[in-house]
């Protein structure tokens, strides 16, 4: 229920007016004043309490988009990890997701514990969410200086999101099972709102192009007579599914019907997406979206790592930025 400021003021005014009328009526009347005062104090304190709780309700963030029954839920699984730009990335992504109806964000931290930054962030995000965490094993993690393509990133976290979905939604069977779509959204990409409406009708696996990826202007499926016949990619087109993580969505039914489908964290470079999709569909079964894969609605943007040269220099003089200030 959304409380308007006006409603609270009308309530406040009515309560005050009633109090005044009551006080005037009591004037000149004989009474046992101690008992009378105590009752009045109790009423005042009860009304104060009600006013306080109404004010608190007004402060609570509400999901901006109402949930609509009958509309398939989009489950967005996002791996994320602690770094300087994390809060900025999460702010940008969450504020995109706030515009999407019937969306459930599954944010999975690459960490042995849930961090305060992410926990607090989610509480105030206004989104419907599930907060999970799982650390990437040390041997699978990129080390400082490693090229970014050396090892797949976020595999364990996406699998943890899938595990949660299967455990939570998997209890429902057949006709009881809600319609849903699963999308893997990295925290640093750029998503058009139209993309989410394109994927909402996914029956098995839907696909579309991704901009600024793989050293190309875009990569994506090539469609002829309504079917995907090959892929436009700059590298190893022979891969089973030469698609970027941002370029497909899977129906929840298909995820639940294939309880073993998962991302292979040890897959060779460029084969992470294939390791998940291989057992789920064939190329012929893919559902092309975004005007038969002729529109780019998602971009594989990457954020520059901020340089901390001046911060480091100032810290050496004891003049660094306040470490208590969350960035
Ligand atoms: N990620 C992670 N742990 C890591 C590195 C990355 O969970 O050690 C997440 C990251 O937050 C993002 C996804 O995995 O959501 C893909 O990582 P990144 O954007 O660095 O990959 P790239 O853009 O190079 O494919
Ligand atoms: Mn990225």
TrEMBL record:
Region annotation Disordered: residue ranges?
A: 307-327
Pathway(s) it belongs to: Protein modification; protein glycosylation
Entries under Pfam families matching the protein: Glyco_transf_43 (PF03360)
Q: Where in the cell is it found?
A: Endomembrane system; Golgi apparatus membrane
Q: Which GO terms describe its cellular component?
A: Golgi membrane
Q: Which reaction does it catalyse?
A: 3-O-(beta-D-galactosyl-(1->3)-beta-D-galactosyl-(1->4)-beta-D-xylosyl)-L-seryl-[protein] + UDP-alpha-D-glucuronate = 3-O-(beta-D-GlcA-(1->3)-beta-D-Gal-(1->3)-beta-D-Gal-(1->4)-beta-D-Xyl)-L-seryl-[protein] + UDP + H(+)
Q: Which SUPFAM superfamilies match?
A: Nucleotide-diphospho-sugar transferases
**Topology versus the membrane:** Single-pass type II membrane protein
Q: Which UniProt keywords apply?
A: Disulfide bond, Glycoprotein, Golgi apparatus, Manganese, Membrane, Metal-binding, Signal-anchor, Transferase, Transmembrane, Transmembrane helix
Q: Where, by residue number, does UDP-alpha-D-glucuronate bind?
A: 79-81, 110, 153, 158, 186-188, 300-302
A GO term for molecular function: metal ion binding
Residues of the active site? 273 (proton donor/acceptor)
Which is a GO BP term held by this UniProt record? carbohydrate metabolic process
Necessary cofactors = Mn(2+)
The EC category is transferase
What is stated as this protein's family in its record? Belongs to the glycosyltransferase 43 family.
Name the UniProt record assigns to this protein: Galactosylgalactosylxylosylprotein 3-beta-glucuronosyltransferase
User: Which organism is this entry from?
Assistant: Megalops atlanticus (Tarpon)
Classification lineage: Eukaryota, Metazoa, Chordata, Craniata, Vertebrata
């Amino acid at each position: 229920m959304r409380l308007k400021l006006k409603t609270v003021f009308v309530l406040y005014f009515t309560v005050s007016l009633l109090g005044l009328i009551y006080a005037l009526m009591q004037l000149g009347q004989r009474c046992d004043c101690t008992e009378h005062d105590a009752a009045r104090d109790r009423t005042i304190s009860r009304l104060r309490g009600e006013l306080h709780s109404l004010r608190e309700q007004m402060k609570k963030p509400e999901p901006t988009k109402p949930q609509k029954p009958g509309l398939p839920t989009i489950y967005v699984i996002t791996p994320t990890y602690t770094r300087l730009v994390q809060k900025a990335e999460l702010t940008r992504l969450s504020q995109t997701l706030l515009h999407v109806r019937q969306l459930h964000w599954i944010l999975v931290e690459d960490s042995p514990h849930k961090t305060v930054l992410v926990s607090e962030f989610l509480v105030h995000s206004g989104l419907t969410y599930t907060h999970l965490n799982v650390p990437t094993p040390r041997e699978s993690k990129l080390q400082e200086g490693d090229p970014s393509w050396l090892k797949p990133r976020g595999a364990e976290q996406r699998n943890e999101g899938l595990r949660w979905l299967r455990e939570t939604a998997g209890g429902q069977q057949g006709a009881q099972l809600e319609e849903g779509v699963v999308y893997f959204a990295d925290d640093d990409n750029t998503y058009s709102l139209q993309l989410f409406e394109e994927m909402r009708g996914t029956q098995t696996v839907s696909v579309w192009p991704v901009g600024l990826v793989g050293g190309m202007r875009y990569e994506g499926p090539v469609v002829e007579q309504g079917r995907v016949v090959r892929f436009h990619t700059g590298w190893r087109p022979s891969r089973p599914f030469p698609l970027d993580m941002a370029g497909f969505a899977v129906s929840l039914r298909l995820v639940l019907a294939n309880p073993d489908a998962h991302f292979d964290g040890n897959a060779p470079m460029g084969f992470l997406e294939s390791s998940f999709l291989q057992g789920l569909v064939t190329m012929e079964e893919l559902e092309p979206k975004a005007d038969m894969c002729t529109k780019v609605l998602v971009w594989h943007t990457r954020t520059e790592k901020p340089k901390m040269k001046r911060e480091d220099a100032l810290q050496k003089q004891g003049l660094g930025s306040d470490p208590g200030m969350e960035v």
